[in-house]
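Researcher: Re-running this chain for the archive, since the previous output was lost when a drive failed. Same request as before.
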Amino acid sequence: MSSKFESYQKRRLASSYISVVISIALVLFMLGVLGLVLLKSTTVSDRVKEKIAFTLFLKDKVNRKQINGFKDSLVKEDFARRIVYTSKAQAAKKYSKEIGEDFLTFLGENPLKNGIDIYLKAAFVTPEKMEVLEARFLKNQFVADVSYDKPLINLLTEHIQRIGFWLFVLSGFLALVAIILINSAIRLTIYSKRFNIKTMQMVGATKSFIRKPFIWQGIKLGFIGAFIALIGVGVVVYYIDVFAPSLRLLKDYITLSYVVGGVLLAAFIITLFSTFFATQRFLNLRTDELYY
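Model: Regenerated structure tokens:
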């Protein structure tokens, strides 16, 4: 009779462990995919920002030597990612090609100016920072005028902030759900051992001594769940790379390492604290409360 009961208990414990691992894996999978979306959306928005040109039109009196010196000084600036110089002759040729006729034959002279396109680093592509740069360059002795797409910058910044806010809210909600689900699953496994916990207490075992094996067991289950979750995230990454190769997810080792590290860290922290508080609850129960 006792052997049957022991085998039943073992099966019950094994099924509870499996349910804990599955719960952890599903929750961490969702967090991993969301983390991937958060990190990649930042990368994509940065790429879009870095394609926007901040153009300086130079005064006609500025000679070639001064232009080269000015370009060299711009390259050293913190905000500059790439500098492209376009002479007035190159600009005229490009414009004539766009309109389909040589406008210089009608005007007799080239009204365009030499220009320097500054492709800014993503952190500097905001309405406030670009206005500061505009005011600065308008005071420069070589610059006649400054041009950039202000409506586009405002619209882009507004959309990125809105998307970032809702992704942050969603990630916070999922993190809360993750903690609740994993905590509930772990508490169920510890609930089945509540009598063992109380027996150990009654023979003089300290709370830390009783708690330690449960914590290590919870962390091990968390890492198993994290490993399964990462396999699922890996499958998602593979198919995204197949259907959207321009994102180059499989070659984005930095983003992938952040996702892997984040999932493993979340598994460790959530299982550690969930197990700690779950065992603490049963350690503080009176003997007559164990049956409720």
